[in-house]
Amino acid sequence: MIDNLPPLREVIATHDLRAKKQLGQNFLLDLNLTHKIARQAGDLTGCDVLEVGPGPGGLTRGLLACGARHVLAIEKDPRALPALEQIADAYPGRLTVITGDALQIDPLAHLTPPIRVAANLPYNVGTELLIRWLTPRDWPPFWQSLTLMFQREVAERIVARPGSKAYGRLALLAQWRADAQIVMSLPPEAFVPAPKVHSAVVHLTALPQPRFPADAAILSQITGAGFNQRRKMLRASLKGLHPQIEALLDSVGIPPTARAEEIELERFCALARALQAARQG
Ligand code: SAM
Residue 1: pLDDT above 80? Predict the structure, then answer.
């Protein structure tokens, strides 16, 4: 028992919260599991937590039971409001709920640093938000850490290392400015209804500054061109970026015949700096 609120199956029955496919609803009903996920988010005491897509509130209850100072929950489905209000009453002053689309709402006005983010979201919304959270105008970002559920294949793309099939733009984006780790794996049966695929929780911690210096836009151009044609050699896939691309690749120790998936983040950042200097010179 993590709190004195009713079990989640009862909450769902009372409020008639039948899962809707179009909202990507696969609920976690085991409070021991949601508590365990909340613990992966780090020390929450003294932190505000942004939770996206609380649904009936299993993870929300885990976050509050773990001592979050304040949880701001953004939920698109108004049917979940009564269940979330019940949680807010049990934790006075510690839960604020906003009904709406997390892709349209700027949560910052409602949050005080330090801020952590936790969510079990529909996978498409989760990936879009992750990319936004990893590409703010200024670094460090508003968040200290992100603890997010993804389908396992996406989680593997976030933490992938060079040479693997999963390695690509998402890995480079995540690992350039954050530490990223898979901290839990969940089978389909952990959810109601069960999705078709396995899931995994990824924990990302923001680095105070990027791991290696590079201009974000130029790095993105390079990885975009390199991985859009991942079977091509870099001298061909990056040809459009600079007339002397082969010499630039050589200058930073990347064989022009290599493919993007073989190249480490540090080398891509070195190439971004060389390309920037060559364009300016
Ligand atoms: N966090 C709950 C849990 O673990 O049981 C619910 C998880 S369910 C996979 C995803 C939740 O995100 C649903 O409650 C759904 O209504 C909500 N949702 C879907 N799209 C959303 C969006 N754009 N903004 C906010 N919430 C969204």
Answer: no
**Residue nearest atom 10 of ligand 1, based on CA coordinates:** 121
**Residue 244: other Cβ atoms inside 10 A:** 11
pLDDT tens-digit map of 112-158: 999 999 999 988 899 999 999 999 999 999 999 999 999 999 999 99
Helix (H, G, I), strand (E, B) or coil at 51: strand
Q: Residues within the annotated binding site for S-adenosyl-L-methionine?
A: 26, 28, 53, 75, 101, 120
Q: What is the CA(92)–ligand 1 centre distance, in A?
A: 23
Mean pLDDT score, 11-32: 94
Mean pLDDT over 72-92 rounds to 97
pLDDT in tens, 181-225: 999 999 999 999 999 999 999 999 999 999 999 999 999 999 999
15 has a pLDDT exceeding 80: yes
- How far is the centre of ligand 1, averaged over its atoms, from the C-alpha of 75 (Å)? 6
Position 108, amino acid: L
Question: Which two tokens mark 245?
Answer: 């691309």
Among 222, 253, 252, 255, which residue's Cα sits nearest to residue 239?
222
β-bridge mates for residue 118, sequence order:
51, 147
Write out the E strands in 38-89: 48-52, 70-75
- Beta-carbon contacts of 243 under 8 Å, excluding residues fewer than 6 positions away, are none
Nearest CA to ligand 1 atom 19: 23
**C-alpha torsion angle, residues 130, 133, 135, 137 (rounded to 10):** 160
Which amino acid would we find at residue 225? A
For residue 195, report the distance from its CA to the centre of ligand 1, in Å: 14
Collapsed DSSP state (helix, strand, coil) of residue 18: coil
